[in-house]
Amino acid sequence: MSDSESDSESSSSSSIEQLKSHPVLDWYSKLNSRRVDIVGDYAGNELFLVEGDSVLLNAFSDQHLDFDPGFQLLHATYAVEHFLRGLIARRCNFHIAFFDDHSELCVPHSASDASREKYLLARTAIIRHLSVNLKLVHPDTELHSFPSVRSKAFANYLETTDIYFIMCHDGASSSALRKRNILAKHLNALEDEDHEALENELRTKTTFRLLISWFVERGYNAALVNGLEWLDTKIITTVLENIRRGQRHEWPESQRFSEVSDRDKGKMTYDQAALAQIKSPTDQPFTERELLTILTLSQFAVRNGTLHEYGSALLGHAALLSELPIAERRLRHITLPDSARGFLLKFTELSRSIMNSQAWSTDMSDRSALCDVADLVDGRLFAACLKDGQSGSNTRYQALLEGLGRLCGTDINSVASNGKVSGESDDEPPSPTSEENKKAYAVLPFSNSVFDTHLSPVHLAIDKSGEISSATSAHIFREVSHWHNSNRPIDSKAREEHSARSVKQQFFARRRNQWFMAEMMAYAGSLTNAVGRSLEPEIVTTGPKAKITAPQAPEKKADNVKPKAAPKGNKKGGGKKAIMEEIAATKKAKDETNSEKVFQGWRTTLSSLEKEGTPPAKYQRAKLHLATLNTDFKLAILEAEVRLYMLHVLLGMWLKHCREDTEEEGLPLAALIFDNVKSFSKIRGTVTKTICSHLATTIKALELPPLEIPVPDGDRPIHFTFALSNTQTADLSIPLPPKQFQLLHCGPYFERSMDSAPDHRVPFEPDGWQRKVLDEIDAKRSLLVIAPTSAGKTFISFYAMKQVLESTDEDILVYVAPTKALVNQIAAEVQARFTKSYKYPGKSVWGIHTRDYRINNPTGCQILVTVPHILQIMLLAPSNANSWSRRVKWIIFDEVHCIGQADDGLIWEQLLLLAPCPIIALSATIGNPQEFNDWLVSTQKAIGNELVMVAHPHRYSDLRKFVYTPPTSFKFEGLPDSRAFGRLGLDGIRGFHFIHPVACLVNRARGMPDDLSLEARDCQMLWESMVKHQTPNFKVDKSLDPAQALPAVVKKSDIIKWETSLKTLLRQWLADNESPFDKVISELSAPLRDVEAKTQAVQTANKNGHSSKHSKKHVETTLPLLIELHKQDALPGIIFNYDRGLCEEMCRHLSTQLEEAETAWKESSPKWKAKLENWEAWKKAVAKAGKRGPPKISKKKATGGDDEALSKADLMMDSANTETSPWASFNPDDPVEGFHFADHKKMTQDELNRYFKELIRRDVETWLLNALRRGIGVHHAGMNRKYRQVVEMLFRKGYLRVVVATGTLALGINMPCKTVIFSGDSVFLSALNYRQAAGRAGRRGFDNLGNVVFHGVSMSKVHRLISSRLPDLNGHFPITTTLVLRLFTLLNESKESPFAVRSINALLSQPRLYLGGEESKMTVLHHLRFSIEYLRRQFLLDSEGAPLNFAGCVSHLYFTENSSFAFHALLKDGYFHNLCAEVDKKQTEVLETLMITMAHLFGRQHCRQADEEFVEEIIKKSPSVVFLPPIPEKAAVILREHNSSTLDIFTAYVRTFVEQHISYTDDTLPLTQIKIGGDSLPKSALNLPRRTPTKVRSSFVALSGHDDNFKSIHDLCETSRSGVFLEEAVVPYVGLYPEESEMPLNAYLYDFFMHGDVKALAKANRIRSGDVWFVLNDFSMVLATIVTSLSNFMKLTPESDLDFTDVRGEGDEEEERKEDTFLPTEDSGYETASTASGIVGKNQLGPGIKQELAVRNVKKSKKVAESWDDDADEELEIENAEKERKRKMKKAEETGEKPAWEEGAGLLNVLKAFKLLREEFDMKFRAMWA
């Protein structure tokens, strides 16, 4: 080795080590990440930035791409467009950015120097292609090029463009070699790689991660391009969260690729005058590709008037590119000689330089040349033209040659190739299966009367020989048949054990049902109606009587009406009249007596009110007294006077403001006076003349708007002296014009009815839209109701429920809710609203059915409240098809926008299609309501229902938004005693900054969302600003002046009309850059600019601090925020954070802060010390008193604040007192006033103690109990069920005033609060979740105004949340293979019941939300037919659609699709039988192997960090297994075979669909829609070494030599031609890992099974601590389902009697076992009609499975032939088919081996092994949470 070589290697090694040690790699390995759906869960319609070179690297790394040596530039372009189209098709909104100094990043690290130039040319050509052609079809998708991320141009772009996040690559290699090295932890093997390639990889990786860090520290998240999955309408990828903004990473000079950027900055020039000389000699002008080819060749390929032979070949190749159909460009590979490669490399360098020059783009635009440089070079075509000089010699070639001659100033002679290209070869021998003579795929016979109707358009060849199972499968199927058909007697001992267990189960089920009922009644007691009052149950009766009860309400008004005197002189009936007169006189006397009692009570109340210390206390007590007037009689007599007293108190406070000249400060109080005066217009009772006079005086004195005063009825003196009786000389007027005062201060108090009118159907006056809903329900029409939170949707459900209850005792309504919390609440509301008696036992008004628990028999109740999964199981249960399912009359889908979720959205969509009755779909947040409505209309129409959409866009109460900035210093010394009175909102409060909604419209491109709502003062401020900044060209019409636009007394409906007009004008200004829109935004956002400046200053100051500490600053500063809310009486409040762990941390931190401050106060407070002394004295006195009982103490001593010790005389006096001493309940450990947020007035201590007792028994952690005592709770899905329920009840009752929650409280939960706080940012804080959560504030009937506060959320994110439109709902492909199997089970086992037939017809009528038209329907039908074919080939269906063999087990695992089919393959083909045969001898070994196998199939999660530094830093230092070891080879062999069979089936699906339904060629680029090539084969191309065009694979991918043979399902789905629906997610297969997976699988399940270490799961496996319980519980449920299914199938006890809706994970089971320990041993007194039916009968809901040998179909071969074959010679075909079948059977027998298990014992061994695996896994699971 020479010294230079040694030095070079040493330098390279040094550079590699330097790159490996770069700090950004370590930083990146520790970065938090989540895999989310960036469309539905994250971005929605938000604009994000795609880093262009990341997409190029992703495309150039495609294993299908032949770039070296084939140089398939068009294929590379297709790969880029295919990716971008995937984003656009899923409604993503993005821009693309390329950075000049990143140009090298697109080159795969393994590329050679020669290839490098090809990739760089491809980069330049693709950028040029997209910049010209993309805007023509997708103008909103902008493409930008910048010098670097640090350039001024990019800084300006970021400033003017509001991007949400960046999508980029992280540089991780996906090569198989590096993956194997990493998985094996052989880091030393990396040294064997080429040093240069390794250095390039490290450089690329480091630069990408520096790019990510650059964006992260500026507040942007990053979503990864590599590892991205297309999952139906979802885009699942890794999102890196920006929680480490504190660290800044510098860009080393060595990483800037300065050498490249110098060459790529556009400094290269060319002879523009020469370019101008190039003219086409024909009518067809030269395209950009042709011009570039001519110009490049002229610079190096022409010598002395002669074009080099390589140049001639290249010119011929260029001529063919425009004429040759793309399908005919699938050419054999020909190896080029070195000289030709050198020529091509030179052409590549020069053409790239020309395109990079600044003048090229301008020149091409001036010439209007067609931009086709994306197809500049085809390496295979060039080699073919070089091999045969005649190829390409056509008229276009001559035109190009002439153009070249004009440029060179001479006639050009071309030298034809001599054809002697060395190394000619075809290294891709054609596969016989890919050529035209390939035998067509034949499907197995299938005929079913219901499905045949839909499948009739699908015409396929039939394989009449049938499918013959392998010898192993035949053994297993015989065993299956044996178990299923066996009637052997069950062991008597086992029967006794099972009987005893069944009795025990029924006992606990009955007790559990009673206990839950008791809980539910308590829960119901905490609920309130729309006006904040407790719900009163209504007795419902069935039949005509129900209609008679409605008009009873008006009769009560008779109490207040004087009976008319009977006319005199009418003797007829005189006795009757006398009786009536006597009755009337008696009633009058009684009323007078009762009236006096009421007045006496009021006088007493007035006396106590006047003793209250402060006017606010008087007002509040008077308000409470008003609420006690709970009869029409009391209200008629006293309501007006009580309201006048409240007004009197307010006026007294206003008088004080006027005397002190602080009217401005008292304007909120004046607004409350306005509201009080206005309230008199709605009084139902008598308003006397005196009261009316006082009201008129008030309006006049304060110069209020001309409010309506009731007509006086009689008169009587009031019982107090009115405040304005003696103030004639004082000036009490409000210092604002009446209209301005209303708009700025009275908006929350405006009359809010919208076309309301009385309606006998409901106990309130519904608005117009609500009456429309009632009419549609009465007409039994389906409904889609879209209305914001607090608009009044709740009544809809209960009106429909009441109808069902009143109709018969048999009708059913199902209420589907997305969360268990909402299920509980709805059931409790039904409990609180309705009661009904039934003739027969077993019936109930309502029932709950979730996987966690049941209350009442789900098939015996009339209102079933459940979750989507359970309803689907019930609807698909054959046993229900002829009974329960037919009785369902309504299904209500609450929060129906959940159809868009990645997790369960598919179930929602399937349910909407399966619904057997009219539906009511409710939502507040649908981004594309009309499109969603159109789809629902078509689905309902298919089953004979009409659907109507009712949309109401207005909230009942307004929301006011604020940003909170915490104080720089804070010392907590206790909560203040006094609270603000009469103030709404948080304006002017320290730290709170008002956000005008229009101020958030900072991004014009985003436009204005339809649901951007403005309250009255927002409209006033906007109007003032628009008037101020109007110009002659942009005027504000005078009709918008509130003086003209609004009446004297403003109502909410008036504001809505005004708001609409203002927003219409504002939209016009927003759309015009010349308008004063920016000035309006600037003025309205002025208060926020200081906030942004302060926030940036704080962030800058924290740059050098620890990033994680800074990221949780919102946790530390929550207490000062809550203190300010407490001062303003703006609690209760809910704090939303979407991280379970942070929610708990925030609660714990708040509780600790309060506790520590309290401790400090106690240590320094004399008052506290004196109180303890008094308490000690009392205890001594009690002890001394002995049997005389505890001494009593007067209220005076207990509450008067006297610090003196109690004397003996005091104690004796208190002993004589009959009142209980407050010292008896005093506990020095209880939170002290001022150091908790709890409102003890709302609950008695006994009630609290009962709740705490229940929680203590359930081992709820002490800190959570302490937090509850201080009025703070936590709510998320991971908390104990009872604890969550207690938190909800205590919050509703008003005791808890602060709850920290995730999104569990955002979906429809009735938890009314005054303020919602968004604390901290999150990936899940999206436009959708923001609207859902914010809607909890200001709920109807509780608050006139809701506050929304942003804390720890950047201003850019705040702007985005408020100004973003809701994301569109996208659907899913609902016809999954599992669903098809379950439908056949339903159809077969229900004997083709009408319900089953109807369900199938409905499902197949409109199968997908975003597909439309006949062609799409045909796609689905073909897909369905091949799903059936798959089930047939897997021996799960027979030829008539009857389920076979293990169909039940697969159906029960429906929630794991597609893993269930991989599991079935291993079960069917004997893998589990062989493995488990030695479970008794090698139990540990068998279970470990079984666990590895299961971890490969279920709960699959991908690791992001597939890099050696992560292995080095984390894995090697941890005992954990992080990357899942390979699946056992025997299992791999079976799965490969299964996947290969599945691949054949779905390849045939694409082929047959293309042949039957697609007539157009696949010659258009997917994104830009540019057509490639000509339509017919030119003569000059006849000698090309063409291969057969592909039918299934895309013609663009085929350019790289690929045929219609596919390596994997992923290969098929990614590279299929256009026009065919094929989603990888719905193909029944699981990709083998590691050979079919780009990213390593996380070994978290296997690692937990081996070690049981939860901390390791969080640290090494990166499973978030809040998610650990859920992922383990999900896997436990899989094991439970398998064990239960096999036991049930084999008719073994005890599992066989279990209903599959009862199957749960061990986490849920353990929680129920704990709950059972708390059940009372005696009846609780809440026995219901259905408590005895807690355990349903065998198979009541689970599908029954028809079990037969798979070969049963053969016996019916003749019948099959008759139904499928119309040929005349069918007997011969039957004979041939029988011969083929026998041949297959013989082959299967010859290749089969004797099973390793004992005949008949195989399934028992499998069941035993899975039971053992389940027991061991669950044991560790239980231990983890013990």
Structural description of this entry:
With 1826 residues, this protein is of the alpha/beta class. The radius of gyration is 39 Å and the shape is globular. Among the domains are: 262 residues, no CATH class; 128 residues, no CATH class; 94 residues, no CATH class; 197 residues, P-loop containing nucleotide triphosphate hydrolases (Rossmann fold); 130 residues, no CATH class. Helices cover 49% and strands 7% of the residues.
- Work out the number of β strands: 30
Q: Give me the number of helical elements.
A: 70
Shape: globular
Q: If you compute it from the alpha carbons, what radius of gyration comes out, rounded to the nearest whole angstrom?
A: 39 Å
Distance between the termini: 65 Å
- Outline the low-pLDDT stretches: 175-193, 253-266, 429-437, 488-492, 545-572, 1099-1110, 1190-1209, 1211-1219, 1409-1413, 1694-1698, 1723-1768, 1789-1794
* Beta strand %: 5-15%
What's the overall average pLDDT, rounded?
Answer: 80
Largest sheet: 8 strands, mixed
Task: Report helical residue fraction.
Answer: 40-55%
Quaternary status: single chain
**Class by alpha and beta content:** alpha/beta
Topology diagram in text:
Layout: H1 3-20, H2 23-29, E1 33-37, H3 38-43, E2 47-51, H4 52-60, H5 73-89, E3 93-99, H6 113-137, E4 143-146, H7 152-160, E5 165-168, H8 176-183, H9 195-216, E6 221-224, E7 229-231, E8 234-240, H10 258-264, H11 272-277, H12 288-300, E9 302-303, E10 306-307, H13 309-321, H14 338-356, H15 358-367, H16 379-387, H17 395-408, E11 413-414, E12 442-443, H18 449-455, E13 461-462, H19 471-485, H20 492-525, E14 538-539, H21 545-548, H22 574-609, H23 615-627, H24 632-659, H25 667-679, H26 689-702, H27 738-745, H28 768-778, E15 782-786, H29 794-807, E16 812-816, H30 820-833, E17 834-835, E18 844-849, E19 854-855, E20 861-866, H31 868-875, H32 878-881, H33 884-887, E21 888-893, H34 905-914, E22 919-923, H35 929-942, E23 947-951, E24 958-964, E25 992-995, H36 1016-1029, H37 1042-1045, H38 1052-1071, H39 1077-1084, H40 1086-1101, H41 1107-1111, H42 1113-1116, H43 1118-1127, E26 1133-1136, H44 1140-1164, H45 1166-1185, H46 1195-1199, H47 1208-1216, H48 1245-1257, H49 1262-1269, E27 1272-1275, H50 1281-1293, E28 1298-1301, E29 1315-1319, H51 1327-1334, ...
Parallel strand pairs: 2-3, 2-5, 3-4, 5-6, 10-11, 12-13, 14-17, 15-22, 15-23, 16-20, 16-21, 18-20, 21-22, 24-30, 26-28, 26-29, 27-28, 29-30
Antiparallel strand pairs: 1-8, 6-8, 7-8, 9-10, 18-19, 24-25
Helix pairs in contact: 1-9, 4-5, 6-14, 12-13, 12-14, 12-17, 13-16, 13-17, 20-30, 23-24, 24-25, 24-26, 27-36, 31-34, 36-38, 36-39, 44-49, 55-61, 59-64, 59-70, 66-70, 68-69
